[in-house]
Amino acid sequence: MISIAEAEHIVKTSTIVLESESLGLLNSIGHYLSNDVFSPMQMPPFSQSAMDGYAVCGTTTTFNVVGEIQAGDSNEYILKSGEAYRIFTGAMIPINTTSIAKQEIVERSNDVMTLTENLKTGTSIRLAGEELQTGDLVLKKGTKINAAAIGLLSGLGIQTITVFKKPRITLVITGDELTKQGAPLLKGRIFESNSFTLQSALVSLGYSAKIVLVKDDFSTTKETISTAIETSDLVIMTGGISVGDYDYVGKALNELQVQQKFYKVNQKPGKPLYYGEKGNVKVFGLPGNPAAVLTCFYLYVLTAINTMTGAVNSGLLKTKVILNHDHLKKGDRGHLLKAKLIDTQVQIHKGQSSAMLSSFVDANCLLHIDSTTNQIKKGSLVDIYLLP
User: Fold this and answer.
1) Same domain, 177 and 262
2) What's the pLDDT tens digit per position in 228-286?
């Protein structure tokens, strides 16, 4: 049985990034760049007005208004000292413009405009190239493409980018005790929820998955896992990985010659965690208990996904904060506790059973207590993983 740190390290170092592909901007949302992007032009491409108002030339307080410039006007106008142009936001400023006087600080009578406040040279002018020069680095390799990135790139006239592919993911859910949503719930059975939990977590992070429910039958389990491996980059299984009489996942993985990287981690919840690979396909066998499933997903599966997709930071962000109450840990395993961070202090939630998801609903972090620590006093610094 290995430690949490060892398990994290094995997942990170054994996972390789997927191939890259060229995508249109709108199709690239949520992907990570597979190469640096450089600017093909300066931004802004010309010096422009940042306000609706008047482009002026000179330091006097009264100006003769000689014309009007709308956004998109491609003519080049020239100002002489003491002259002004009525101008609108985004419009190209005239040559010799010293400042833009916003319309709120001027009074106009016919073609004469008078300032009501002092105006500094350069006010409200967006200079050509002040954001980017031609050839400047726009976005680094490994940057996640979000709405702002797409807006920035489209403003530069870039239509396609090269990104790392997202993994093909299959969720294999095992257990004869599971009942599909909408079916009658018989005694001794429970509604299946792990597929909903995992699929929702994946969707919230920009990924999708194929879902397969499997009965506790060895041949069916083996065939299903085999197909999943052949058609996926990542296979996530829940349940059936322990050593019970009806836990067939481990035996199936062995017969399919999946190379085991580790099995069982010294943690609570989620001790019976399996991680293996066949070729470049990564295989996770998560415990069946709902809270253990989500904990292992965030700590290990998401690390593998982020590594596959080229993210700069593959694991959850880890930091130290202050615990705002005493806590006594039982047992000699490392604990991963649902908790809530408020400002710089963290509160451990009640209901830490691996079967309870209710304490996860309001959690924004996992508090990590190592295997050698049993008692933590209020005011102590503790380690937390920030949840996405």
Assistant:
1) yes
2) 999 999 999 998 676 555 478 888 999 999 999 999 999 999 999 999 999 999 999 99
The identity of residue 381, as a single letter, is L
User: Is the same domain home to 111 and 176?
Assistant: no
The total number of structural domains that make up the chain? 4
Question: Domain of 343: which CATH number?
Answer: 2.40.340.10
pLDDT digits (tens, 9 = 90+) for 128-168: 999 999 999 999 999 999 999 999 999 999 999 999 999 99
Query: Same structural domain for residues 191 and 280?
Result: yes
Q: What count of Cα atoms within 13 Å lies in the side-chain half-sphere of residue 152?
A: 16
Same domain (yes/no): 118, 149: no
The pTM (predicted TM-score) of the whole model is 0.87
Residue 27 lies in a domain: yes
